[in-house]
Amino acid sequence: MAYMSLKNQKRIIKMLIVCLAVAMVLVIRLVYIQVIKSEHYTQMAYDQQTRERKVAAKRGTIYDATGEKVLAQSVSVNIVTVTPTSIDSDKKEEIATKLAEILELQREDVLVKLNKKTSSETIASKVSEEKAKQVLEYISEEEISGIRVDEDTKRIYPYGTLAAHALGFVGTDRGLNGIEAYYEDDLAGIPGKIVGSTDGRGRETPFTNEQYIEPIDGKDLVLTIDATIQAITEKYLNKVNTENQCEYSTAVVLRPSTGEVLAIATTPTYDPNDPFTPYSDELKQKWDTMTSEEKNNALNDMWRNKTISNVAEPGSTFKIVTATAALEENVTELDNAGEFNCSGSMKIGGWTIRCWRSPRAHGAQSLREGIMNSCNPVFMQVSQKIGIEKYCEYLKAFNLDSKTGIDLPGEASGIMHDPNAMTAVDLATTSFGQTISITTLQTAVNYCAVANGGYLVTPYVVKEIKSGSGNYEKVTESKVVKQIMSKETADSILSALEDTVETGTAKGAIVNGYRVAGKTATGEQGRGENKKYMAGFAGIAPVSNPEIVVVVNAYAPQGEAGHGGGTICAPIVGSIIDETLRYLDISPDYTLQENSIKEKVIPEVTGKTVAEAKKIIEEQGFKIASDTTLNDGDIIKDQIPKNGASLMEGSTIRVYTTDEAKQTASVPNLYKLTSDVAISRLRAAGFNVRVVGSGFVLSQDPAANSVIEKGSIITIKCVDTTDLP
Fold this sequence. Notes:
Blueprint: H1 6-36, H2 38-49, E1 50-55, E2 62-63, E3 70-82, H3 92-103, H4 107-114, E4 121-127, H5 129-141, E5 147-156, H6 164-167, H7 178-182, H8 184-188, E6 192-197, E7 211-213, E8 220-223, H9 227-243, E9 248-254, E10 261-267, H10 281-286, H11 292-303, H12 306-309, H13 319-328, E11 340-342, E12 345-348, E13 351-354, E14 363-365, H14 367-373, H15 376-386, H16 388-397, H17 424-431, H18 440-451, E15 455-457, E16 462-466, E17 472-475, E18 480-483, H19 487-502, E19 517-525, E20 532-541, E21 548-555, H20 565-568, H21 570-583, E22 599-601, H22 610-619, E23 623-625, E24 638-640, E25 646-648, E26 652-656, E27 664-666, H23 675-684, E28 688-692, E29 696-701, E30 707-709, E31 713-719
Parallel strand pairs: 2-8, 23-26, 28-31
Antiparallel strand pairs: 1-6, 2-3, 3-4, 3-5, 6-7, 8-16, 9-10, 9-21, 11-14, 12-13, 15-18, 16-17, 19-20, 20-21, 22-25, 24-26, 27-30, 29-31
């Protein structure tokens, strides 16, 4: 046997190696296809053999706070789709013509879709039942395959423009603004599908069953927004915007104890049922002359929830922040008579900063009077007492450089001075709400803290999320961020704000039957030729037990009423408060009917021990008070008021066991206050009161601003009408 040559042996070995290599490549490729890419190729095969059509899930319904009024819902409509590869080429032009006619579309647009090589094309969505029926009749009569009519949904807003900026709207397949966007994952649900068979060329195979996979409907939302309160707010916001020819106006109504948003509005508004159509007459008139970019900008501005997205210099509503810092840091007291002086202006860092009343001066004032008169020099002097470092700590405490955390998209944070670069001038202007910027919502949250005893709360608009079965999946709990002032400070500021409404710059917000507290604002936006004003007012009611905080801001007013918050916004807020409290069935604080006031004679307690005096005073229905610690065995040396006079039950008798100096206080101005408010005011100042008549204060004795001993009796004469000289 002849042996192979060495050369042939080498050749065979090489061939074996090549074969082994090829085999290895084939094995690796096989493993890659069958194992690594198995899922991919399985899906490709599935896609080649099947055709899926989406079945829209029903979007969740949005209800108002009552749980009864529907603010947004989805209704059944239809969607028309085509499988281009299943349609006869010779018939495509004819089909395009007919579908365009029925669905009111452009024939050329339909034909483009019919000529595509895709597996599915949507010809029209949100198709009415009538038009869907016409399409079905046409494809049945002509025996056309490849055209489908399936169920779809359409979003509608039954109340039109009501709460548009809060609700937002839905685009082709998702929420594009407001609650619709923020809660997209909850509202949207999970789409279902219809699965059918196709041949190798992608055409639907006849006589095969389709598989229907049920969609999972979206969840329902119950809002904190009350449709009635929202309608009240929008009615008056439109009034202030129209009458004063404003660029825009914003408003929010909050429940101060929880942060619930009862109403939130921006005007001009839009209709979420047709969000791409300009709503204002002004915009409609110039729409056809605008470029695409200009139209997009105009639409975005129309949709913008300016109550939470636009920041502006708040003006004097901001003064409660400065007052809080002052009282918390004990740099002053609310009623230190004549502590501050207004000459009409102040010089700070080489700048002359004027009071709104300049050249007239307010003269000597307490902090309370500075709030009532909205006097800028008072707050500049207060801020100097606080100092830059400590003042900035309170700006931070109010979270003014942060968002409030409301569950709505597009919220802006306030713009504050850099504490490390803040100057004396910056401190002065910030103290009365200039050179810083915050949103309308931030102002409202600040006033909630005054109303609820000092707590910063997080505002929210959705209180419940419910599944399709009606079961609660989530109930929003109110969130207290932190306490930013003591209850004593909050009550003091609330008292001063009530004075501001009753006798100060905010008389326009007086509401018959209810005690209202509030502050006016006239903020400056821009400087020089670009300067515009913002009129504003923040109100709290009823003072006895605050249920609502209402803030209204009007930007760039041009009407005859000028640009002052007291004339433009205070009456609007008063009207919103009036109608809202009556709708909520909140009992009035007072009536104009004569009050039955039971009086008793003041007993003589001088010469008696403290223990004896307490027993006698309390048995008569009075209270005992002292400026020093009382020990039961101490002897009473003096009392105010003296015995023999008559006082209402619940009045306080101030006693002295030593020869210490009697404490004094300034008598507040009670003119035009209701008797209930006047009594509350006098008692808070340390005085007793005797009431003659009922209704509103006509006169008082001693006169306003008199400095007399605490415990003294102030006599007020009242009449049952507000028509006082």
